[in-house]
Specification:
Elements lengths: L7 H8 L8 H14 L12 H8 L3 H14 L2 E4 L3 E4 L23 E2 L11 H11 L15 H13 L9 E4 L2 H12 L5 E6 L6 H6 L3 E8 L2 E2 L1 H11 L3 E4 L13 H14 L2 E5 L17 H4 L3 E6 L11 E4 L5 H8 L8 H13 L5 H21 L13 E5 L5 H10 L2 E2 L1 E2 L12 E5 L4 H20 L3 H4 L12
Parallel strand pairs: 3-13, 5-6, 5-8, 8-9, 9-10
Antiparallel strand pairs: 1-2, 4-11, 6-7, 10-11, 12-15, 14-15
Helix pairs in contact: 1-3, 2-4, 3-4, 5-13, 6-13, 7-12, 9-10, 14-16, 15-16
Family: In the C-terminal section; belongs to the class-I pyridoxal-phosphate-dependent aminotransferase family.
InterPro entries: Aminotransferase_I/II_large, HTH_trans_reg/aminotransferase, PyrdxlP-dep_Trfase, PyrdxlP-dep_Trfase_major, Tscrpt_reg_HTH_GntR, WH-like_DNA-bd_sf, WH_DNA-bd_sf
Protein name: DNA-binding transcriptional regulator
């Protein structure tokens, strides 16, 4: 397999200025080490040759050669025949923590920010009552509606058409949530050992399925400000990926929104490589203060796209209803892959969602206003109480992707747990290791709760900084921690 290639110009941009205290080779080596550890240069990426990077940085060949030598000695570069210098992580470095943890045993008084999801919306009780009233029409059957409730499929299809992707109900089938839908798509498209292209960071609950399939991951970094499309397209062409798992709509966890122009470029590379896109659209309805029309669904740019939707973020996670929108030539393989995992979503829950979607396909204006208030309160508390932390304000989605000054995300996460605050550390979202300077903070609670959460984070950061949390940093996370979603 050909390693993804990072151009010399892009590498120089990522390294930044090379003036400062200490030898220039050490500054270059330290910058590249942090970029690899953070996942901004994905493990497995081929770095530019020493000669090419020398020209891009305007430094001597000796300086760049010495920097690469330092990285090789420390385990951050590996020399491979035919691939040059490839980004790697030292042996013993924790690559990622990707288990799906489910536990209701959150201690009383703990602020839980591990799950980026909202409480049930207003009108849920009325929707449930309407579903029960409509249920007698379905009680004479077995209840196994493998493709889903026809009326709900029609509503979902109409919404895709309204967004700019003409869709009929027979191109949609309903699943038991988006995680199941994504697993179905992965099993339908991938054989053991196939390569899948993934963003890093990315939504973590796809990792167990990829491990079971023994899939190889070609990772492409998503910056806090968005996608590096040239690197992404070159990786698509070089990786030989059978499928690409993408989150272009208010990306979880960064909140980025891919433009139509970017989608078109990525779609062109996917078509040329005959790569099927698996696109997670679970937060597409969560624009907060995005201006102008939304970009077209990714499937409008790339016909060979399997779109995964869900009610969990737009309405309520307790419904456990998702869906797949796919071109008809993929339906047979998708249905075959589905049977071991899911033989039909609950009828009553589908009727509830049908009632809710007829009223509003996404979040209500009131819910949007609440999310904006909570996001702004969290951002202001972080700026005031934790000015050393950095983040880019998202225009949508449900969380802030926050950068720590040092690669201590796991230590901070564990120290925060002792302060009564739960959140997910960056390595959980890493497709190819790193991201240990990042944490995800959802803004799904009230402004008051989020302000208190920041106070607890301040205490956790202080304990890590003064070393009093060192003993906790050496312990492993609880094997049955809370859900990260």
């Amino acid at each position: 397999m050909v390693a993804p290639v990072l151009s010399a110009a892009r590498t120089a941009d990522l390294i930044g200025p090379t003036r400062g205290d200490g030898p220039a080779y050490q500054l270059v080596a330290d910058a590249l080490r942090l970029l690899i550890a953070d996942g901004r240069i994905a493990v497995g990426t081929r770095l530019p040759s020493e000669r090419d990077l020398t020209g891009a940085l305007g430094l001597s060949r000796t300086t760049v050669s010495s920097a690469y030598a330092v990285l090789r000695d420390r385990g951050y570069l590996t020399s491979r025949r035919g691939s040059g210098s490839v980004a790697s992580l030292p042996q013993g470095v924790v690559r990622r923590d990707t288990g799906l943890h489910l536990s209701p045993d959150v201690p009383e008084g703990t602020i839980d920010l591990t799950c980026a999801a909202q409480r049930a919306p207003a009108g849920m009780t009325q929707a449930a009552e309407a579903a029960i009233a409509a249920s007698p029409d379905y009680l004479c059957g077995t209840g196994y509606l493998v493709d889903g409730l026809p009326e709900l499929r029609e509503v979902i299809a109409a919404h895709y058409s309204d967004r700019g992707l003409p869709t009929t109900a027979d191109e949609v089938f309903v699943t038991t949530g988006a995680v199941v839908g994504t697993a179905i798509a992965a099993r339908a498209l991938l054989s053991p050992g196939d390569t899948v292209l993934m963003e890093t960071p990315t939504y973590p609950n796809i990792f167990p399925t990829l491990r079971q399939l023994r899939a190889r991951i070609a990772a492409v970094p998503v910056e806090p400000t968005g996608w590096d499309v040239p690197t992404m397209t070159s990786t698509i062409r070089a990786s030989g990926a059978r499928a690409a798992f993408l989150l272009p709509d208010f990306h979880n966890p960064t909140g980025n929104l891919m433009t139509d122009e970017q989608r078109a470029l990525v779609a062109k590379a996917l078509r040329q490589s005959r790569t099927t896109a698996i696109v997670d659209e679970t937060v597409v309805e969560l624009g907060l203060d995005h201006e102008g029309p939304m970009p077209l669904p990714f499937g409008a740019h790339h016909a060979d796209t399997v779109s995964i939707g869900s009610a969990s973020k737009s309405h309520w996670g307790g419904l456990r209803i998702g869906w797949i929108r796919a071109p008809k030539h993929l339906h047979e393989s998708l249905h075959s892959a589905r049977v071991p995992l899911d033989i039909g979503a609950p009828v009553i829950d589908q009727l509830v969602l049908l009632h809710l979607m007829r009223a509003s396909p996404g979040i209500t204006q009131e819910r949007r206003r609440q999310l904006v208030e909570s996001r702004d309160a969290l951002a202001e508390a972080l700026r005031t109480r934790c000015p050393q932390l950095r983040f880019v304000m998202p225009r949508g989605g449900l969380s802030l992707w926050v950068e720590l000054p040092e690669p201590v995300a796991l230590q901070v996460t564990l120290a925060a747990e002792d302060e009564g605050l739960l959140f997910a550390s960056g390595p959980r979202f890493a497709a190819a290791g790193g991201l240990d300077r990042w944490i995800r903070l959802p803004y799904v609670l009230s402004p008051e709760e989020l302000t208190e959460a920041v106070e607890r984070l301040v205490r956790a950061l202080a304990r890590v900084a003064d070393g009093s949390a060192a003993a906790h940093g050496r312990r492993a996370p609880h094997p049955r921690g809370p859900l990260v979603a």
